[in-house]
Design a protein that fits this description.
Number of strands of chain A: 13
Largest interface: A-B, 31 and 31 residues
Strand order of the largest sheet of chain A: 2-3-4-5-6-7-8-9
Distance between the termini of chain A: 25 Å
Largest sheet of chain A: 8 strands, parallel
Oligomer: homodimer
Helix content of chain A: 25-40%
Chain lengths: 357, 357
């Protein structure tokens, strides 16, 4: 049965998106209202503001600003791994409700210039995180260099993932935004404390799609068809090891046009994130990568939030539900705020709808 | 000795650029004057206008329009391989001075929608070309499909090159704008009737460079560092099998901004093409891919025109000379015409200069 019949009217728990960029200021005001449009009531908020969030107090002040925009969302906060973070900072942050710490290798993506050059100095921090149950979120790319390009940066990072896991087997680690078959396999080879997030857009894209389209260009970049199909299959494998983290990354239109010669990396999926996942599975069925039978209600519920909530140990006390509708909606052309304009992924294309129950 | 000392003041024959896009109308008027700025007096003109040039009369009418802009340039004309081209058309075109025929696989680049789906129907055309000494110029990429992406499109085309060469060993074939180590090796493995052109920009670029920079995005896309280094070494191998074809491809700024979601493929190098080649070798020396000693006057003269003229059987009766200068020039920010604006490759960066003697 086509998904449009099978899931039209399906009721699911509100989605949880375990990797979002909500920015600050005018962009935050434009973006936060789109969280619920995308079917989510829980978001795991990235700390790469300018300057990055390296203390619990900064993260909590940011959380307060987010709550001013929409207090109905459960914002899960992270810190930015940085030399100022000590084991004492970790434990203090944990006590104040900070959930994890995100590591960016220096220079690989938007606002990562304060990132990590080597993991070894952070071993005491990882020990403290392991002890107090904080999650380590890894941007899994090596910085480009002699033989490292944006195409093999993730595959070259995987030995680091495995060695961190071997050294800290009780540390919960998320390999964020997996884009390659290699990454999927590496996460599978690790123990249950290592999981991977998958974005909505990487379920759609290959390299050809972003090469000439700034609104599909993100880091890590989408790779080959075989990589995309590995992601689709991982999203549906039902093991709980892979779940949604959209990496929705809004940039003002001016930063996407490449007028200065540089296009900002990031795809904006927040307003349709649940809907896009449904559409991606439909496209994969058309490509004959999966069949309708592979997309069950249980797996959908898991990928869209259940698996992630379980890994992070979060319960959704709101018990909010969304209803999926296969209707006639099309993706809005533009989202606007106060002097900010953001073009969403797949603008103008047809999409599933969601209703809040 | 650094190239800046070794070649400052060096006198060379005017360069020949064996792959240029000069467009038509206002863009042509903006671009043709830049041919001499780039040190060239001979250009091999691509036929992918809209509609494409599929007859000698159209190509000669275009040549007349080009000569109106600058009669001092030797414009070598090609036709666009198309079902309307018969053996009789080939022979008639040759008699009228048309030099070659360019084949575009359907859909791979700018204005290639009328391109070739299969080579077999053109075997009689290739036989006629072989007989009358016309050159076949191949855009060597397979159209993207199931497992073909813009990254492996060229490598996947190479068996086609080899089988065409095996079937038509006397047909002169140019594999245009080689971008991979694989392509260089394939050209080397073929007999002397198969050569390859190399652009100036592919001597500089890898995938990371164009991913976020529309002004470095072209088809075929720049690949890995190892590919770039293979191109640099091929350009300097002194065999005569590889020579300059810049594929300079101007697009109006509006088509590069991706405002509609699509960025036009093409890098504009025409005004500095000789200068850029010098700079590329300097950068390769810095990367320790080659040494100063690898860049000799003889090889430079060959790559910049001598090898190509020899392959095409062209003599430069003008005997014009250029002089290289390592000065303080920077690449202009913008080239403008009547309602057209083109941003050149490496705008604002320092460059060699040339003077006409």
């Amino acid at each position: 049965m086509p998904l449009s019949s099978k899931f039209n009217g399906l009721e699911l728990p509100a989605s949880a998106d375990f990797h979002v960029h909500l920015r600050d200021g005018a962009m935050m005001k434009a973006v936060v209202p789109t969280i619920r449009s995308g079917g989510c009531n829980t978001v795991y908020v990235m700390p790469n503001l300018i300057p990055p969030l390296t203390s619990a107090s900064d993260a909590l002040a940011y959380k307060a600003r987010l709550r001013e925009q929409d207090p109905s969302i459960n914002y899960l906060m992270t810190l930015y791994l940085h030399e100022s973070i000590s084991p004492a900072v970790v434990k203090g942050a944990r006590a104040q409700g900070i959930v994890g710490i995100k590591s960016y290798p220096a220079g690989v993506t938007t606002n990562s210039s304060s990132g990590v050059l080597s993991y070894e100095p952070f071993y005491p921090v990882f020990t403290a995180m392991e002890q107090c149950g904080m999650v380590l979120n890894l941007h899994g790319e090596c910085p480009s260099g002699k033989d490292i390009t944006i195409l093999n940066a993730e595959s070259n990072f995987l030995p680091t993932l495995k060695s961190l896991h071997a050294r800290f087997p009780k540390l919960k680690i998320v390999l964020e935004h997996c884009t390659t078959k290699d990454a999927i396999e590496a996460v599978r080879e690790c123990g249950p404390n290592v999981v991977g997030t998958i974005t909505a857009h990487h379920l759609y894209l290959i390299v050809d799609d972003w090469a000439d389209n700034p609104f599909s260009y993100c880091k890590p970049v989408a790779k080959n068809p075989s990589d995309r199909e590995a992601l689709v299959k991982a999203a549906l494998d039902g093991t709980g090891k892979f779940f949604l983290g959209s990496d929705s990354a809004p940039h003002d239109l001016s930063a996407k046009k490449g007028g200065t010669g540089k296009v900002a990396a990031g795809v904006f999926t927040q307003p349709y994130v649940t809907q896009l996942v449904l559409g991606a599975f439909e496209e994969a069925i058309k490509r004959e990568v999966i069949t309708e039978a592979d997309v069950t209600k249980e797996i959908l519920e898991g990928f869209l939030g259940g698996y992630g909530r379980k890994f992070y140990g979060i319960t959704d006390s709101s018990n909010e539900k969304i209803v999926l509708r296969k209707g006639v909606e099309v993706v809005q052309e533009l989202f606007e705020g106060d002097r900010v304009q953001v073009i969403p992924f797949r603008k103008g294309q047809s999409t599933w709808s969601i209703e809040w129950k």
